[in-house]
Amino acid sequence: MGCSRLLFFSFFFPSFYVANVERLSTQFSSTKEFSYGFYNLIVGQSHGQVNAIGLCRGDIKQDVCKSCLSETIPNLLQICINRIEAVGWSDLCMFRYSNRDIFGVKQTTPDSTIKSNLNVSNVEKFNLALSSLLNNLSSHAAVGDTFGKYAESHAVAPDNFGSVYAYAQCTPDLSQKECGDCLETAIGKIGFCRGSIGCKVLQPSCIFRYETGPFLNVTDEINFSPPSSSPPPAEGKGKGNRTSPTIIVVVVASVIGVLLLLACIRICLRHGKSKEEDDATVQAATNNFCEENKLGQGGYGVVYKGQLPNKQFVAVKRLSCGSEQGEREFKNEVLLVAKLQHRNLVRLLGFCSERKERLLIYEFMPNASLDRFIFGKEKLERKNASEYRGSQFEGEGSTAEIMKCIQIGLLCVEERPASRTIMRSIVGMLSSSNPISLPTPSHPASFLRSTSQSDNIVSSQEAHRSTREHAPPSINEVSITELYPR
């Protein structure tokens, strides 16, 4: 377990944050979905919001994953009591929480390195071979998608070292570069385990581990050293009969591998060509980004209206060229918006990144009255109240779902901007099928207090006014008074 060293709860820290931290275990136990061993939990809102991430090892099943996290969370809360943020690891899972946004953010501290007390005989050769294996696993894990960035393997070491089993894993919310950098930092700490037969480096955003004994469901094998020359064929009929089928299998596998490689190269070349055509298509759709198609301009670029060859209207966001903020915004928007697909959100149809040109293509929503989208043009022209209801409102609906939508809407229009729910939380609330304890909206600005409270306020004001009226007037001791108009 690892806790932040200086971030303790203080007297001035919101008490509801402490309550939200204590709710993590209960909130997690009510979750039923563990589709790919990664769990993102948000409890509370605004300054009291707790952000949590749970990650299971990539080779374990869902029930084992949930059992591991259910045991790790209460232990972490007990060990790191009164901490604003903490992280805990076990052999099969990891859990962390913080008051800041940790989703999609690479973090390498606090860390923990654990090694075996037994050492190998030839340290130099073993470490050289081990470095090759870990670098290979790091590359494979980094190219994983949002469903998992995990790679495992075992390798046959030289000089009769036996086999070494290892795995590398990142939280799937990281990009390929962030995952690679995180694992590179972790592998750089392997000097502490120099010569040890087993070691694991634990970081909040990534983990790697190796052992000389099997502890994983190995799916692939990587050789430390290049293949040696083929041994001379053995004499004897029995031996020759066993060798022939082996040769046939190897030849067939080699042919299949070459064909797959050629197919991949062809797909990549075709993909690169279509990417250039897509870029030209976008320019043609927006009339080469002319001013007539300009819809607006923001801090990171200009938005244009366009029409694709299939007659579909789109909104093309062209990010500012050479802007560091524009590049960061493009990266965040593609990663987050692509994940946050919802029927109530404008869909991201595609993107283009070529040289310094960065384009985001959204579905186009023309300016109009909200009633026109809800009820349609014909019913608006009739202006008949009895026919205002759309077909989507016919029949009975879930009262709980209606109340949830109303409550989310109230959270979006809080008086203080800092208290309003962020878009990522809204999408999670809308798309979740599990019961979520939503925060209670605060009173609106026009909220009227009760009669007793109003009477107390009025009485207090009258008493203050009475005291002020009976107080003796102050004496003006200034000799000269100059008046200046406002």
From TrEMBL:
It is found in: Membrane. The keyword Signal applies. Pfam families: PK_Tyr_Ser-Thr, Stress-antifung. GO terms for cellular component: plasma membrane. Residues 1-19 form the signal peptide. InterPro entries: GNK2 (IPR002902), GNK2_sf (IPR038408), Kinase-like_dom_sf (IPR011009), Prot_kinase_dom (IPR000719), Protein_kinase_ATP_BS (IPR017441), Ser-Thr/Tyr_kinase_cat_dom (IPR001245). It is a single-pass membrane protein. Keywords: ATP-binding, Glycoprotein, Kinase, Membrane, Nucleotide-binding, Phosphoprotein, Receptor, Repeat, Serine/threonine-protein kinase, Signal, Transferase, Transmembrane, Transmembrane helix. Residues 448-461 have a biased composition (Polar residues). Residues 1-102, 108-215 form the Gnk2-homologous domain. Residues 462-471 have a biased composition (Basic and acidic residues). PROSITE patterns: GNK2, PROTEIN_KINASE_ATP, PROTEIN_KINASE_DOM. Residues 289-486 form the Protein kinase domain. This is Cysteine-rich receptor-like protein kinase.
